[in-house]
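Hey,
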Amino acid sequence: MDRDLEAAADGSETVRFSYGLVFDRTCATASLVAAVLQRRGVPAAGQNGVSEPSPSATLRQ
């Protein structure tokens, strides 16, 4: 599964996530997901008018 996500960062169309990618390697996974989205035209936070989340934003449970 790691190779699927890494391939997607390089232009492949399929992304699959394993338990380990989601729960054990969260930062590395998030970085590769960001690369996939940016490669497909989704601007990164802070670019092209997309703002960073507010520091006062909180998650509701």
